[in-house]
Amino acid sequence: MGEPVSWSEMRASDGDRQRVAERLGAAQADGRLSMSEYDTRLRDALAARTYGELDRLTKDLPDPTGGAATPEEPGQGLADQRGGDVAERTSGCPATPPKSDLRRAAEAWASVSAITFTIWLIGFVTGGGASNPWWLWVAGPWGAVILVMALSGAGKRYSN
């Protein structure tokens, strides 16, 4: 075996790259990165080979665990000064938690249902012959899928 490799030269995994990509997405959603800067950093994150390359992409962003960003010591990079590893440091949640997939689906369902109901109601009130509540064919099956998702626990975001 050869000389030990420094932390910043160690190979990053696909999971490490994905966590950094998620962190960059959260920073862009918070307004910390412009769309152009986000696109550039995301491309670099997905092409990164080492922890050092990933570290350079997030070093100017706040600590995702909610604490203040800490200065880094040589060779430490993404490793948290409290002893955390890359996964711990890069998988933290942004200050405001993102909406769950279930909530997004329910909001979309409610919006579309309200629009289709309104269109049907206008036709019904104006005598356009729209007595058949066709909007239920849009709202019903979609609502049933969302109900099954809610009861089964699908669509929730899990964060460590």
TrEMBL record:
<protein>
    <recommendedName>
        <fullName>DUF1707 domain-containing protein</fullName>
    </recommendedName>
</protein>
<feature type="transmembrane region" description="Helical">
    <location>
        <begin position="108"/>
        <end position="128"/>
    </location>
</feature>
<feature type="region of interest" description="Disordered">
    <location>
        <begin position="55"/>
        <end position="101"/>
    </location>
</feature>
<keyword id="KW-0472">Membrane</keyword>
<keyword id="KW-0812">Transmembrane</keyword>
<dbReference type="Pfam" id="PF08044">
    <property type="entry name" value="DUF1707"/>
</dbReference>
<dbReference type="InterPro" id="IPR012551">
    <property type="entry name" value="DUF1707_SHOCT-like"/>
</dbReference>
<keyword id="KW-1133">Transmembrane helix</keyword>
<feature type="transmembrane region" description="Helical">
    <location>
        <begin position="134"/>
        <end position="154"/>
    </location>
</feature>
<feature type="domain" description="DUF1707">
    <location>
        <begin position="10"/>
        <end position="62"/>
    </location>
</feature>
